[in-house]
Amino acid sequence: MAQPILSTAGVIKSFDGLVAVNDITYEVFPGQTSGIMGPNGAGKSTFFNLLTGYYRPQKGRVIYQGRDITHMHSHERVILGIARTFQLVSVFDSMTVLENMMLARVRYGRDYSSKLRFFFKNVHHRELEEECLQALDVLGIAEKAKIKTSDMSYGEKRELEIALALSLQPQVLLLDEPFAGLSLVDIAHISKVINRIKGQFAIVIIEHKISKLMDLVDTLCVINEGRLICQGDPQQVICDPEVSACYWGK
Ligand code: ADP
Ligand code: MG
């Protein structure tokens, strides 16, 4: 059987006595698209933050490609191939889509130092530009490369967030509520994008819009009150009595 690319073993994270993530053991496999659902405040985003290195667990381990990365900084994890969507705050409105992509790449990418030098000397860096254009093309927004992000709609900016993460050529892509606040049209577009990139690397999606999530994932898990309560085949997970109880009560 394939080895997981990313996994956790018994991770615990608490905030002032509140246990947000409680003993979660989880595996992500190469090429697999996995969903995480659970009520608000269940600990899903905190769990992502443990995977990306934004938080360190008080107990347990995070393993990536067989290597213990529990204490590794988030920027080092990005270089190794663990990318998450960037928040809108990290997009510079005065810059074009392509410039934002290139900046994200030089800030967070594997080849940081050499490309940073090129970028700030304003030397035309064709290879970098080409790679960023390709990432935009995957999302079907290459024609928007030269427009300023300030002129983009909210839906387009959310797409750009995914493009920024893709420009880092990740091995594992983590998407925290990619559909939040989007219209049905935008959700359909982003679903199409995820379907297009699916299988090329591992993707983990936290999402509340369960029916949309079900259309995308190979496997599903549910986190409730910090604990992973159910995981496996999406159809089976969704029918599990413990899962309905955590949403609707017993
Ligand atoms: P979810 O993403 O499932 O909605 P979160 O992981 O954001 O849940 O939060 C889980 C719990 O941890 C919540 O009770 C939340 O209030 C708490 N929490 C999250 N981040 C912090 C923090 N930085 N400081 C204190 N409490 C936090
Ligand atoms: Mg959250």
TrEMBL record:
Any one cellular-component term (Gene Ontology): plasma membrane
Keywords on record: ATP-binding, Nucleotide-binding, Transport
InterPro entries named in the record: AAA+_ATPase (IPR003593), ABC_AA/LPS_Transport (IPR051120), ABC_transporter-like_ATP-bd (IPR003439), P-loop_NTPase (IPR027417)
Entry protein name: Amino acid/amide ABC transporter ATP-binding protein 1, HAAT family
Entry keyword Transport: yes
Tagged with keyword Iron: no
PROSITE patterns cross-referenced by the UniProt entry: ABC_TRANSPORTER_2
GO molecular function, one term: ATP binding
PANTHER family linked: ABC TRANSPORTER ATP-BINDING PROTEIN (PTHR45772:SF3), CONSERVED COMPONENT OF ABC TRANSPORTER FOR NATURAL AMINO ACIDS-RELATED (PTHR45772)
Species, as recorded: Desulfomonile tiedjei (strain ATCC 49306 / DSM 6799 / DCB-1)
Signal peptide boundaries: none
Any Pfam family matching the protein: ABC_tran
Domain ABC transporter: 6-250
